[in-house]
Structure formats: C-alpha cells, structure tokens
C-alpha cells in the first residue's frame, strides 16, 4: 500500500516570502512548472491513483489539477476539504518572513513557525480575512473555523479527517494522492512517523516534490522517501527552513 503526498508548487506568496496560511493565492510560474514536473515524474515512475484529496486553497488544487493533467488522469475523483487547508497563520498572514525576523527576532519567528503548540497572534473577529466571513466556508459551523492555529491545532483537524476518509479509502485498496501544504504535511508526517513534538520542529517540506509512504497490511509505515533528484530536494528543503533568516541570499 502506497500513499503519495505532495506540497503544492511555489505560490506567489512563497515567491514573495510572505506568511500565507489560509490566504488563497495562485501558484507562481515556477510553481506551475514544479507541479508539471511532479506529474511527469509520477507518470514516468509508473504511479497511478483511484482517488485524490486536496484542500479548499487554489495553490493545492491547481497543483493537483496540473499533476492529473500530466498523468492524463483528469477524470479521477477529487475530494476537497477545508480540513486539509494550510495551518491558519493568524495575524502573521501577509507579513514578509524576513522582515518579521528583523522586527521580532529569529527566536520568536522560529517559535511562531515551528513550535508545536505556541500560537502566533490571532486575527481579530472583525478582520475581513476571518474565514467566518468568507464564502467558501459558509457551510462550516462558525466555531470550528480558526482565527489562528498552532501545529497542534492543525493536527487535531487533519488527523481525524485523514483517519476517517483517506485511510478508509486506502484500506479499501484505493490508491491515493494528497496535494496539500507545508504544515498540513508536517501534521501528517508527525502522525505517520510517530515523531515527538521536538522531532517535528526540524522537518521542512519542499515544494512540488512527491513524498511516498509505503505501508504494510496493518497500516504500519514501512518506509518513506521523496521522488526525484536528491540534491534538488535538499536545496528546496533548506530554502524552506531558511525562509525567515535575514540576508539568506547573501550567505
Ligand atoms: C506556508 C508555510 O504554507 O510556511 O503558510 O506561509 O505550504 O501553504 O506555502 P504553504 C505559509 P512555513 O510554516 O514554512 O513558514
């Protein structure tokens, strides 16, 4: 049993180095290319799927659509859920990561980005970005929609959805691909690899690279690995880890 998880390609806000969270931004030109390459690679390696999962955010949806287009599998069923949305980054959304480090210091920004359960500042209730005011979440009980989330909060919505839907499909023999986000995927990795709160801090997810999980019949992880060029994967992962560092381009 295999599961493929892919972080969307670079978004316009990844390119501009802005905290994104639930902001619904497009893929950048580079991100579109990354999604194409992911689809071509999956096809070349002989992967195929029966069902696809993604979030309500267009950077993940566009990535999945591009992958399916490259694989000539646009007809496959796609299940979208807000429960697979990126972690809500609260009032940090829209701020430049490097500028935020200059203002608040590296330690504080690292805590906001990677601590397990410490919350960044929340959006105010009357903020136009509050998902409770947004059309795409109109069906969701208001109390369930966040104004900010920690990784722990993200895990608490992602994992029940994963167990009840994705795992269920897999147990019925369906081959699944998930197109999601940096922190949604970190939530899944913490759960699947049984990582501690400390171990997950150093896990960063490269954009547009398919991650393969292999399971035995008891749904225990046998191994996991990224597909593609090792140096490129390392370079992209480091780019994510260093995103908030000051003067990273001059190092
Ligand atoms: C990034 C993750 O999410 O940021 O919200 O800024 O995967 O949707 O681009 P994505 C964001 P970091 O936690 O890596 O800073």
UniProtKB/TrEMBL annotation:
Cite the position(s) of the site with description Transition state stabilizer.
181
Give the enzyme class: isomerase
| Active site as annotated | 8, 86
Query: Tell me, what is one Gene Ontology molecular-function annotation carried by this entry?
Result: phosphoglycerate mutase activity
Catalytic activity, reaction form? (2R)-2-phosphoglycerate = (2R)-3-phosphoglycerate
**Which EC numbers characterise this protein's activity in its record?**
5.4.2.11
Q: Where does substrate bind?
A: 7-14, 20-21, 59, 86-89, 97, 113-114, 182-183
| Keywords on record | Gluconeogenesis, Glycolysis, Isomerase
* KW Isomerase (keyword) present: yes
Pathway(s) where this gene product acts:
Carbohydrate degradation; glycolysis; pyruvate from D-glyceraldehyde 3-phosphate: step 3/5
Q: Which Pfam families match?
A: His_Phos_1 (PF00300)
The free-text function statement in the UniProt record for this protein reads: Catalyzes the interconversion of 2-phosphoglycerate and 3-phosphoglycerate.
Family that this chain belongs to = Belongs to the phosphoglycerate mutase family. BPG-dependent PGAM subfamily.
Q: What is this protein called?
A: 2,3-bisphosphoglycerate-dependent phosphoglycerate mutase
The organism that produces this protein has a lineage beginning with: Bacteria, Bacillati, Bacillota, Clostridia, Lachnospirales
Primary gene name: gpmA
